[in-house]
């Protein structure tokens, strides 16, 4: 026996992503981890315009809002613990000023609304099938924002409820953007507050619903991040210190599987070249005033120009500006 692990084989995709594809990532922190990589390597990617979302109903509601481009009003905000916030958004949108909170939410909404119309791929990660509803309005919240638990009811949504909600949503999405391809996955992060059994039941509801949706919609596919971590990387050394979240090594491995599955050769080449640019941008020299460091910055500015010339339809102006800023900052 030469193999001492179970390798999860991911189905090869026929039509893979190009380097100039528009990629929208929504859902749990796992979607954020994958999406952040594509943002940082110069892809046209947008990650979680509502912040991190965990349950399918909240994710669906946010996508509906992007499609409708329906702005939030001051009456949609709540004031709690000395900050303004929204039950539809992650706490990263919280602000001391009501106007600043509202402006930030609507700016992100507009960007997401503009983006989804022309997106080539929508990557959705479900985290849990447990939802929280406000008792007085029955509204499903995306984040409880540390309000008293007595204000909410907790419910496990069923496989059928998820299928019905997303059948309607996907029909709406495909009317807006007929060529859109949707990639679904389940976060490998275990929700331990639900208990070991409760977490498994929750994940099972998500997996069964996704399987039916993939059978129902031809442009929808599943990426097995959950199975890769729990079956392929079946060892606690691939988990963070809380023993629930994947380690950096695990995230990189799952990401490499994702890249191998969904990116074409030109996109992989683009990602590899841009990863070197990103690493160079984060490099901190011993002497920032040295001629050697200045040449290093100028060399990377030139590399960015070469990448833009080789790969059409990409704009790397933000990367170039970052190097120019470093260069002007340290030249005296």
Using only C-alpha atoms, the radius of gyration works out to 21 Å
Q: DSSP helix count?
A: 10
**What percentage of residues falls in helices of 4 or more residues?**
40-55%
- Give the overall shape: globular
Q: Topology as H/E string? A: EHEHEEHEEEEHEHEHHHHH
How many β-strand stretches?
10
Structural class: alpha/beta
Description:
It contains 10 helices and 10 strands. By secondary structure, it is an alpha/beta fold. The strands form 3 sheets. A 5-stranded parallel sheet has the order 2-1-5-9-10, sandwiched between helices. It has a 3-stranded antiparallel sheet with strand order 7-6-8, with no helix packed on it.
Describe the structure concisely for a colleague:
It contains ten helices and ten strands.
Jot down its keywords.
single chain; 332 residues; alpha/beta; five-stranded parallel β-sheet; three-stranded antiparallel β-sheet; 10 helices; 10 strands; 13% strand
Q: Helix and strand layout, with pairings?
A:
Elements: E1 22-27, H1 29-40, E2 44-47, H2 56-68, E3 78-80, E4 83-85, H3 98-118, E5 121-126, E6 130-134, E7 140-141, E8 152-156, H4 159-176, E9 181-186, H5 195-216, E10 220-222, H6 225-232, H7 248-262, H8 265-282, H9 291-310, H10 317-330
């Amino acid at each position: 026996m030469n193999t001492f692990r179970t390798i999860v084989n991911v189905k090869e995709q026929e039509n893979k992503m190009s380097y100039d594809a528009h990629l929208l990532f929504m859902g749990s922190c796992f979607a954020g981890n994958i999406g952040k990589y594509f943002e940082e390597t110069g892809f046209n990617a947008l990650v979680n315009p509502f912040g991190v979302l965990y349950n399918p109903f909240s994710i669906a509601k946010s996508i509906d809002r992007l499609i409708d481009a329906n702005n939030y009003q001051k009456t949609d905000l709540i004031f709690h613990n000395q900050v303004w916030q929204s039950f539809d958004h992650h706490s990263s949108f919280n602000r001391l000023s009501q106007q600043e909170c509202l402006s930030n939410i609507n700016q992100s909404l507009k960007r997401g609304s503009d983006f989804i119309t022309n997106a080539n791929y929508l990557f959705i990660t479900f985290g849990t099938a447990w939802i929280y509803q406000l008792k007085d309005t029955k509204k499903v919240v995306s984040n409880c924002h540390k309000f008293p638990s007595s204000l909410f009811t907790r419910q496990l949504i069923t496989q059928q409820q998820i299928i019905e909600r997303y059948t309607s949503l996907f029909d709406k999405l495909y009317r807006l953007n007929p060529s859109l391809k949707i990639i679904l996955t389940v976060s490998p992060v275990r929700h331990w507050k639900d208990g070991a059994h409760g977490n498994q039941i929750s994940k099972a509801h998500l997996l069964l619903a996704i399987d039916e949706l993939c059978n129902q919609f031809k442009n929808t596919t599943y990426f097995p991040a959950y199975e890769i971590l729990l079956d392929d990387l079946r060892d606690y050394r691939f988990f963070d210190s809380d023993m629930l979240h994947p380690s950096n090594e695990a995230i990189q491995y799952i990401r490499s599987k994702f890249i191998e599955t969904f990116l074409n050769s030109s996109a992989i080449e683009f990602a590899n070249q841009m990863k070197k640019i990103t690493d160079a941008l984060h490099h901190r020299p011993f002497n920032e005033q040295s001629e050697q460091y200045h040449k290093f910055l100028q060399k990377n500015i030139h590399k960015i120009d070469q990448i833009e010339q080789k790969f059409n339809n990409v704009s790397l102006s933000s990367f170039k500006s970052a190097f120019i800023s470093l260069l002007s900052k340290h030249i005296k």
